[in-house]
Amino acid sequence: MPALLLIAHGSRDPRHAATVAALVEEVRAQRPGTEVATAYLDHCAPRIPQVVGRLADAVAVPLLLNRAFHAKHDIPAALRAAGSRLPVADVLGPSPLLLAALDRRLAEAGLAVGSPAARARTGVVLAAAGSSDPAADAATRAVAAEWRRTRGWAAVEVAYASAAGPRVPDALAALRTAGAEHTAVAPYLLAPGLLPDRIAAAAEDADLVADVLGPSPELAALLLHRYDQARHAVDTTPALTA
Fold it and tell me: Is 166 exposed, middle or buried (CB count within 10 Å of its CB: 0-12, 13-18, 19+)?
């Protein structure tokens, strides 16, 4: 079995690396015997060149929610610079497992997620980082629409922490205009850091704020699913003939 090389962005905030480490432990618990290694694009160690050289066989799995600049350019460029031709799995989103992880975090924050009546009265802000890539932001909006459709929320509005608006207060106001009796903010982010802190600070008028996705069982299962997809794709690719 090839190793699973988890490639994370990295952050100066130590909570980021701690969260990645906890997620790796959850992956190992779900798939005992599979070698799991971690490499970072920036800020944290080890970096990609430090890791790929010691892996005889591996599949790179990006710890990214959307297919934006990091997935399209940074990770492939870093692997090429390291002299690596590892297969690279798809990004995590969209997936029903991400919606289940969002549900989990809202339930942990005190929302009665299992109650259809409670969901019908509650409007949720899906608070994402935001991207300069229009396709990535469109993917986030599609996640919000699917979450509302499958759960029956009163409304789901998207807000961004780093890109052009709407911001969290704008999204909360839109939820109330749409008739939501209660409001919740769900960070569509993987680990603690500057952007989740910014979202939490902007959400003081919400009834509750959930935690980031973090080392949830659903996220670990999704990483393994993307790993399996990429691994099987390599196994079924016809060999090139001269």
Answer: middle
Give me 20's structure tokens: 């990645």
H and E: helices and strands count for the chain:
10, 7
> How much of the chain, in percent, has pLDDT values that exceed 90?
91
Q: What are phi and psi of 193, to 5 degrees?
A: 160, -165
Give the single-character DSSP code of 216.
Answer: -
Quote the tokens at residue 127: 């608070």
169 contact partners, CB below 8 Å, separation of at least 6: 202, 205
Per residue in 74-131, pLDDT (tens digit) is 999 999 999 999 999 999 999 999 999 999 999 999 999 999 999 999 999 999 999 8
Query: In the chain, which residue ranges form alpha helices assigned H by DSSP?
Result: 14-30, 48-52, 69, 75-81, 96-108, 116-121, 134-151, 168-177, 194-202, 217-236
How far, in Å, CA of 183 to CA of 74, rounded?
A: 36
